[in-house]
Predict the 3D structure of the following.
Amino acid sequence: MSTIKLGDEAPNFTAQTTEGEINFHNWLGDNWGILFSHPADYTPVCTTELGTVAKYKAEFDKRNVKVAALSVDGLDSHNGWVKDINETQNTTVNFPIIADEDKKVAMLYDMIHPNADNQLTVRSVFVIGTDKKVKLTITYPASTGRNFDELLRVIDSLQLTANHKVATPANWNNGDDCVVVPAIATADIPAIFPKGYTEVKPYLRMTPQPNLD
Ligand code: BEZ
C-alpha cells in the first residue's frame, strides 16, 4: 500500500461487483473513470451519494466517464442495499459497486485511513484519464456527502486541458473564460485561440472557453 499520487498509473485489479466480475482497466476501456469509496452499505449519507451518482448518469455519459463505487461490504449486502437506494432516492443504480470484503482494492488505493477508522473506507475519489493515469484525488470524511457537481466541474476542466491547452481559474464554471497554459508563447496565441485573448500580465493570458460555439 502506498499513497497514489497524481500522474501515477491507476492500479489495476479484478473484483466482484454488482454488475459481475471486472478487470478494472479493461472495464474502463477508452473512457475516463471515477473510482469512489464509501464507508459502508445501509448508511444514510452513502445512500444519498449513490442515488445522486445514478441520477447523474447522463452527465457522466456526455463526458465519456465510467463510474464505479466501492466499500468493504460483500455482494449480497450491496445487492440488498441497491434496492433501498432505488426506493428511497427514486432512481435505479446504473453503475457497478465493487465488493471488497478482503479490502484488496481498498488497500491498493489507500482508502482506509486508520486514524479516522481502521476498518472502513473513507470517502476517496480517484479521477482516471483515458491514459489510465490518476488525474485527481480527493478525500472526504465519512460525515460529509460529496458534491458531485464539483466532480463534473473538475472533469470538464481536465478534459479542456487535455484537448485545448487551457487551464481553468479559481471558481471556474463551464462557459467562463479560461487561462492559456504557460507553455504557450504569447506570440503563438492568435493561431491557437482564434476567439482572441486578453493579456492581463505576461504570465496571465485569458481566452474564451475554446470548445463552445
Ligand atoms: C453515512 O453514510 O451516513 C455514514 C457512514 C459512516 C459514518 C458516518 C456516516
